[in-house]
Amino acid sequence: MTADPLALNPVTGIAAATTDLSKVYGRGDTRVVALDRVSIAFREGEFTAIMGPSGCGKSTLMHCAAGLDSPTSGSVRIGTTELGGLTDRQLTQLRRDRIGFIFQAFNLLPLLTALENITLPMDIAGLHPDQEWLERVVSMVGLAERLGHRPAQLSGGQQQRVAVARALASRPAIVFGDEPTGNLDSRAGAEVLGFLRESVRELGRTVVMVTHDPVAAGYADRVVFLSDGRLVEEMVQPTQDRVLDLMKSLGARSHTG
Amino acid sequence: MLRTALRNILAHKARLAMTALAVCLGVAFVSGTLVFADSTAEAHRAAASKNFADIAVTVTEKAPEPGSPAQRRTGVLDDMLVGKLARVPGVAAVRPSVDGSATLNAADGTPLRAGRAWSNLAAAYIPGKDGKDSRHPLAEGRPPSHSGELAVDSGTAAAGHFRVGDTITLATDGPVLTKRLVGIVTTDDTRVTAGGTLALFDRATAQKLFSTPGHYTGIDLSAAPGTTAYELADRVAAVLPADRAEATTGHAQAAQQAVLVDTLTRGYEKVPMVFAGVSLFIGSFLIVNTFTMLVARRTRETALLRAIGASRRQVSRSVLLEALVVGLVASAAGFLLGLGIAMVLPGVLGTGGNTLPRGPLVIGPRSLVAAFGVGVGVTVLAAWLPSRRAARIAPVEAMRTAEQPPVATRFRLRGAVGLGLLVLGVGWLVALSGAKDASEENLRNAMAGCALLVAALIVLAPLLAVPVIRLTGRLTGGFGITGRLARENALRDPRRTAATAATLLISTALVTGLAVIGHSTGQALDRQAAAGLGADYVISTRSTMTGIDPSAVRRVADTAGVRTANAVTDSTMFTGGGVRQISGVDPATVNDTMKLDFVSGSAENLAPGRIAISSTLARELAVTTGDVLDIGLGRSERFTEYTVVGVYKDNPIARDALATRTEVARNSLLPGSVQRVLVRADGTEPKTLEAGLHTALGNNPLLQVQDRDQLVREAAGTMADLLNVMYGMLGIGVVISALGIVNTLAMSVAERTREIGALRALGMDRAGIRRMIRLEALTVAGFGTLLGLTGGLFGAWAVGSLANGAIDQYSLTLPWGTLLLVCLISLTFGALAAAVPARRAAALNPLEAVMEA
């Protein structure tokens, strides 16, 4: 995994970027512009939160950036790889080798144990996990005791911790989280967010997370705000209160505007 | 609720299609086999039945007194009598006939449709007043006019590739005849149109062949309007010489014939009925399984209905109603499909020389009732259980998230019941293995035991699924994570997996059992035939009604390369219990061509009044050497006492009993005749010798020359039929279970949309998803096959011991090739069945996983 030149590229320092990214659904009367020429870069070793009201296009942005959805126009790069020209197979491989995912609904495979779920992306690739790294990740999320359990035997918080470990286990260039705390109570949510921040600070990972929760955004290094498919605001070193204030003012602006 | 039920049907077209297809195929197999059974029976009946519709009265010679050695053909049916009958008041028309049988050689020199003795007809062309024979309208050429000519019907001409002007080789009962084909007629005699042959001679020739010159074999009379057949029969009887001829009404003949035909054709229904039974059983499984899944899939929907106030009764009634509609529509479609199957089946089953008689499709009420009974009945019944389950769904289920952990089912009761059945079935079969003969009762017991065993396997299958699939998982494990996931998915709901595998289980068990028993029996018969045969060639007639002409026997003996040629006369023998086959031999030379292994006594003591019998017969009649038996030989209706002078081990060449040839021949159906010649060669090149034998016999179509291999194969001939049945059942089972696998996988893919999406998001490519689904199908198919194989082998072992009692040489031998083929076919179809669900799963968008449901 250390062979990935992009993750350590000192020149760009950009883990993923979008340029003039647009996504349009439907046509004619039912035409909806979900993303409108969004250009954004996610720096390496940075924890970014994407925020915005429902329907602002934040999930679509993440899906496109992660190669799960294809944009109508514009381009997406992971490292220096342009996603536009890739076949489904190449995209699949890219997701497998360079991207980690954390879903709101955990999406663990119910029939596999926690450990098997964590090593799943590497099993799919037919690779052997780096034991030392794996142990580090597992001990970080505090799951060492429960590796033999199946998802059904774990609490929601524990399941999401397994999902975090799964996203980090193959040392991806970038980890995307889609409302990772959306299904968790506040304490479990705080734990998961703590691990995400730790993975950036201690393990040098890059994390991008979609959320509508100001508390969650407070854990990030940077928050970007989306409204009606456009990038409207950006905040560095956010705190929960500042995020809340900005949301209020954005809300007021959209109401008056 | 009716509207809800109908909406449900329309809302889930794909699911509906799968269910309807399941019902449709189930019904198609059942009705198809039933229609096939009816049609075949009807065709067989037609093939053996003469049409008596326009015959009021037939005058025939009276059978001579049994035992009277006097001239058999009293010759009373002559032209004078015909003239006299024509003047009887009420007689509209008189039509004398000379009927017999003739077997023809086709243009390529092989016997033409010679399998069934009663369908190779011969008759005289008897012109009426207009110079034409109304029974045999000419289609081409002219009627035969002297002994060197003949006519055939158009079907025979087509089958034999004859053209007017050809020289045809044929035989009636004795020596070979050659005649020139001068005419082709048409006939509506069903015996001929269903796959027989008809040869027509001029009147004098026919009389010479089948009667005596100037005499007929029968005179058919039709009644004038206003005269009943019975009145006519009475009037006719009055003018007949009472002791030498008799009048029978057409009705009486038809009734008599019906009884005979029923006995002849009863056997033909069995095979298709077995098919129908198997497809009914397996088809029901498919339907039950599909409906169970259908209801399971709709848990949330049903719960929602309950939550908004639908009562349990309404919910279950809605499910039942849905089943009724699906059942009705699918049954109708299935029935039509079944007609197609019935049309194709004869071609599939009638392979080799043993073609099935042809006839129109017969759609009896039984087929219709069965089709709709199965289609609607089984479907509604299949829906009843799940409908109760559906009714029990708590409204709160509606509020649960889509992703649910696999349902843990309590298996304790199932385990107890299954184990009970298993112990009972195994015990039954093991107890039976002590029995030493294949009596009807033992066979019935064996079948009951096997049925119990299969039932136990079906009940236990969900329990066995976990350990067995864990084991087979070792194999699929080689495919890495896809194999591992396939295994776990197959185990996710063991009950569903087991139900899906059940169809394959049943068909594999049946086929394995039949294959092993068939193979073992075949081998045993081979060994028995080889052990009992001292001759190198056997020349035989195809029935005891015909004989080998004495001059041909002499010519065979004189053929270069023949060391010994022993004539054998075959006949029947009535013991109190039934009809047996007896062979008449020359005691001095019998050991040259038969390898008889005497348990007691010997063949040398055979003489008039003395017989030797096989060990099976000895056991059945409880007699041994030195005892006296009361038997009736051949035509003689009187029972005579015979002394048993020897008991030999069962020998297919010697058959059930041996007596001197003179004694058997005196009473055989064709007195003095020879039915078999056993030939011992002196080492001449077999090809030359065979050609010599054929020449000596004048290439007679009535006779067959078989070498050792052919005889051994013929002894196992019934096994070939069994093989057809076996592959037919495997076919039904495999197709239905493939459908079941498609169904199960489609549902399981639909349930796992998010999971599969997550796998795609995490980097599993489409090929990986496809492989995973295929491996899952293989796992399920493998499970069913493995269980079926085990059950079938055990059953074959247990039932085999019965055969062991009947045939000394029996030992359990495994037809490895067949078993391997069975496994391969089952697994291949399992893998093929996965194609559609696998493609659908692979096409799923990874976004499905991230989008909230």
3D architecture notes:
Chain B: This is ABC transporter. The complex is a heterodimer of chains A (about 260) and B (about 850). Chain A is of the alpha/beta class. Chain A has helices at about 60-65, 90-100, 115-125, 130-140, 155-170, 185-200, 215, 240-255, and strands at about 15-25, 30-45, 45-50, 75-80, 80, 100, 175-180, 205-210, 220-225, 230-235. Chain A contains eight helices and ten strands. A six-stranded mixed beta sheet of chain A has the order 6-7-8-3-9-10. In chain A, strands 2-1-4-5 form a four-stranded antiparallel beta sheet, with helices on one face. In chain A, strand 7 (about 175-180), helix 6 (about 185-200) and strand 8 (about 205-210) form a beta-alpha-beta unit. In chain A, helix 3 packs parallel to helix 5, helix 4 runs antiparallel to helix 5 (about 155-170) and helix 5 (about 155-170) packs parallel to helix 6. Residues about 1-10 of chain A have low confidence and may be disordered. The two termini of chain B are about 30 Å apart. In chain B, the strands form three sheets. In chain B, strands 3, 4, 5, 6, 7, 8, 9 and 10 form an eight-stranded mixed beta sheet that branches. In chain B, helix 2 packs antiparallel against helix 22 and helix 13 (about 440-475) packs across helix 14 (about 480-490). In chain B, about 50% of the residues are buried. Chain B is about 55% helix and about 15% strand. In chain B, a hairpin with a 4-residue loop joins strand 8 (about 165-170) and strand 9 (about 175-185). The longest helix of chain B is centred in the first third of the chain and has 48 residues, at about 250-295. Chain B is built from 27 helices and 22 strands. Chain B folds into three domains: about 55-260, no CATH class; about 420-535 and about 715-853, no CATH class; about 545-700, no CATH class. The chains are: A alpha/beta (about 260), B alpha+beta (about 850). The interface of A and B includes residues 88, 95 and 105 of A.
